[in-house]
Amino acid sequence: MTVSEGSTFPQGVKFNYVPYTPEDSDVLACGVPISMDLDKEIAGKKVVLVAVPGAFTPTCTANHIPPFLEKINELKSKGVDEVIVLSANDPFVMSAWGKALHGADKVKFVSDPNSQFAKANGLDLDLTDKGMGVRVKRFAVIVDKGKVTYIGVDPQGVEKSGVDAVVAKL
């Protein structure tokens, strides 16, 4: 499998996440993780999948995801049905991160268990030498009714995977 512009988004992808509920809005509240069947999640929709190497890490927390949250209305006005934030962190960490960023009610913060999707698509990042294991590269993908219309991967910074690059491609 590979994700590339013009290709059909891979099928059979499963992520895990803790659905946001107002009663569990406190950052320390732990919901119950469930599986997300991405085939069903993206069917007939325009979805932006934004991936980061790690929740609560400097670039991801300060520069990458907050602009997506700030511009969620602009994204939706351009036809985006859903924004999904992806990392290899476990679903509890992703849930807490979404709440800490005040965005858990705006986008879904999901986990790529053991970086399975990332590895299968050449989007994994080995940070073992830094004590972080195998992670997900920083990238953004626009999927429109199952077709990949944009993919931007950033080895450094957020030029190709940031919200401004995504908005320009919508």
Automatic annotation (TrEMBL):
Coiled coil: none
SUPFAM superfamilies reported in the protein's UniProt record: Thioredoxin-like
Family annotation (InterPro entries): PRX5-like, Redoxin, Thioredoxin-like_sf, Thioredoxin_domain
Thioredoxin domain sequence ranges: 3-170
Biological process according to GO: cell redox homeostasis; cellular response to oxidative stress; hydrogen peroxide catabolic process
GO MF term list: thioredoxin peroxidase activity
Keyword list, A-Z: Antioxidant, Oxidoreductase, Peroxidase, Redox-active center
Active-site annotation: 60
PROSITE patterns in UniProt: THIOREDOXIN_2 (PS51352)
PANTHER family associated with the record: PEROXIREDOXIN (PTHR10430), PEROXIREDOXIN-5, MITOCHONDRIAL (PTHR10430:SF16)
Family in the record: Belongs to the peroxiredoxin family. Prx5 subfamily.
Function as written in the Swiss-Prot or TrEMBL entry: Thiol-specific peroxidase that catalyzes the reduction of hydrogen peroxide and organic hydroperoxides to water and alcohols, respectively. Plays a role in cell protection against oxidative stress by detoxifying peroxides.
Annotated protein name in UniProt: Thioredoxin peroxidase
Organism of provenance: Wickerhamiella sorbophila
